[in-house]
Design a protein that fits this description.
Number of strands: 13
Strand content: 15-25%
CATH superfamily of the largest domain: Crotonobetainyl-coa:carnitine coa-transferase, domain 1
CATH class of the largest domain: Alpha Beta
CATH topology of the largest domain: Rossmann fold
Number of helices: 15
Organism: Paracoccus methylovorus
Protein name: CoA transferase
Distance between the termini: 28 Å
InterPro entries: CoA-transferase_III_domain, CoA-Trfase_fam_III, CoA-Trfase_III_dom3_sf, CoA-Trfase_III_dom_1_sf
Oligomer: single chain
Shape: elongated
Keywords: Transferase
Structural class: alpha/beta
Radius of gyration: 25 Å
GO molecular function, one term: transferase activity
Largest sheet: 6 strands, parallel
C-alpha cells in the first residue's frame, strides 16, 4: 500500500509550484495525470541547458528543470482551447479527487473548467488554484514569477551581505523559494481538504498565492517587526537573533558555526582558547551576545583563521558545538550521510536510459516513497489514460 494510492490527481499546472505539489502527491502514491499542450508541453521542458540527451542519437530532450518536478506522473496531451479538449477535461475531472491548476485568474472559466463549473459535475472535487497574487485584490490579474515575488514579499530585503561590506545589496535565494514553498503549502492544503472530505463528503476550493506564501515565510522576521517596530535588515550569513550563528573564515576556507545555546557557546569559547568568554557578562547569554555582536564576531574570526576547516570542524564536533562545511552541489552528493539516506535515486527513462533524480525527503515506515515513473514525455500516456479512465 501507498499513502495516497486511492487518489486521482488531475494536474493542469506548469512551471514549478504546481508541479512540485503534484510530484509530492505522486511520490505518496497518488495517480497523477499531467495535462500538457500537444507538442511543446510544460514550458520548463525547454528551460535549459542542460538538457537530457538521447545516448544513441545525441538529440536534446527535456531540460533538467522539468525533470526535477515531474516524476511519478503520467502525461496526456490535450488542447483545452478546443471543445473536444474541454469535454475530456470535464470527463476526467468528474472522476478525479484533486485538480491542480496555475492559470491566470479566470483563465479556465472561459473554458468551463473553473471550480464552480467542475464542482457541479463532481461535488467531491478538491480544486487547487495557484497564482502569483491570489484570486482577488488589485494584483490578482498580474502574472507572478518567483524572482519578483521574492522581491515584493520581503525575502530579498533580508537576504544578502550587510550594507557597507563588499558585495552588499539585496539578493534572491538561489533556489525558487517562493515557488517551492507554495508547492509545499499547496500539498498541505490539499491533504487537509481530502481529510475533511472524509467527514463532509464534499470537496472544496483552495486559493494559493505565491505572495501569500512568501510573506508567511518571513516567519520570525515578520513577528520581530510586529513586536519591535524595527525593519529587519540584511546580515549576510549572520542571524538576526542568534550569535554566533554564521560562517567564519578559516585558514583554508570557511566553516559554519551554529551556536544554539549558552552551553554550546561556552564550549566554543574554550575550544578557541578563550574560556573567559563563556563567563563574561557581555557574552555569556545569547541576548548579550546579540547586543555585542560587533565586538564578539571579529574576536571569534581571529581565532578561526588560525585553524584549517577540517581540523576545526572535528574539534568542535568532539565538544558538541554544531558546525558544518559549506558544500558545493557535487560535494553534497558525496557526503556519507547523504548517500546513506539515499538522496540520489535513479529511474529508467525511455530516451536516456538511467536518469538520476533528487529523492523525496519523506520517510514513511508503512508506505515508503517509491520512484515508479520517470518524468514523462509529452503525451506519453494519452491513449493509456483515456482508455483506463474514460474507456476511449
Amino acid at each position: 500500500m501507498k499513502a495516497l494510492d486511492d487518489i486521482f490527481v488531475l494536474d493542469l499546472s506548469r512551471i514549478l509550484a504546481g508541479p512540485w505539489a503534484t510530484q509530492i502527491l505522486g511520490d505518496l502514491g497518488a495517480d497523477v495525470v499531467k495535462v500538457e499542450r500537444p507538442g511543446r508541453g510544460d514550458d520548463t521542458r525547454g528551460w535549459g541547458p542542460p538538457f537530457l540527451t538521447d545516448p544513441e542519437t545525441g538529440a536534446p530532450g527535456d531540460a533538467s528543470y522539468y525533470l526535477c518536478a515531474n516524476r511519478n506522473k503520467r502525461s496526456i496531451a490535450l488542447d483545452i482551447s478546443t471543445p473536444e479538449g474541454q469535454e475530456t477535461i470535464r470527463a476526467l475531472a468528474a472522476k478525479a479527487d484533486v485538480l491542480v491548476e496555475n492559470y491566470k485568474v479566470g483563465g479556465l472559466k472561459k473554458y468551463g473548467l473553473d471550480y464552480e463549473s467542475l464542482s457541479k459535475v463532481n461535488p467531491g472535487l478538491v480544486y487547487c488554484s495557484i497564482t502569483g497574487f491570489g484570486q482577488e485584490g488589485p494584483l490578482a490579474g498580474k502574472a507572478g514569477y518567483d524572482f519578483m515575488i521574492q522581491a515584493m514579499g520581503g525575502m530579498m530585503s533580508i537576504n544578502g551581505e550587510c550594507d557597507g561590506l563588499p558585495g552588499a545589496g539585496p539578493q534572491k535565494v538561489g533556489i525558487a523559494m517562493a515557488d517551492l514553498s507554495t508547492g509545499l503549502y499547496a500539498t498541505i492544503a490539499i491533504l487537509a481538504a481530502l481529510h475533511q472530505r472524509q467527514r463532509s463528503g464534499k470537496g472544496q476550493y483552495i486559493d494559493m498565492a505565491l505572495l501569500d506564501t512568501q510573506v508567511a515565510m518571513l516567519s520570525n522576521h515578520a513577528t520581530s517587526y510586529f513586536i519591535s517596530g524595527k525593519v529587519p535588515t540584511r546580515l549576510g550569513n549572520g542571524h538576526a537573533t542568534i550569535v554566533p550563528y554564521q560562517s567564519f573564515p578559516t585558514e583554508d576556507g570557511y566553516l559554519v558555526i551554529a551556536v544554539g545555546n549558552d552551553g554550546q557557546f561556552a564550549r566554543l569559547a574554550a575550544e578557541l582558547g578563550h574560556p573567559e568568554w563563556g563567563s563574561d557578562a557581555r557574552y555569556s547569554t545569547n541576548a548579550a551576545r546579540v547586543g555585542h555582536r560587533q565586538e564578539l564576531i571579529p574576536m571569534i574570526e581571529a581565532e578561526t583563521r588560525k585553524r584549517k576547516s577540517a581540523e576545526l570542524q572535528a574539534a568542535l564536533e568532539s565538544c558538541v558545538v554544531p558546525c558544518g562545511q559549506i558544500n558545493t552541489v557535487d560535494q553534497v552528493f558525496e557526503e556519507p550521510q547523504v548517500k546513506l539516506r539515499g538522496l540520489r535515486q535513479t529511474v529508467a527513462h525511455p530516451h536516456a536510459g538511467e536518469l538520476s533524480i533528487g529523492a523525496s525527503p519523506l520517510r514513511l515506515s508503512d508506505s515508503p516513497i517509491t520512484y515508479d515513473r520517470p518524468p514523462p514525455l509529452v503525451g506519453q500516456h494519452t491513449e493509456e489514460v483515456l482508455a483506463e479512465k474514460l474507456g476511449r
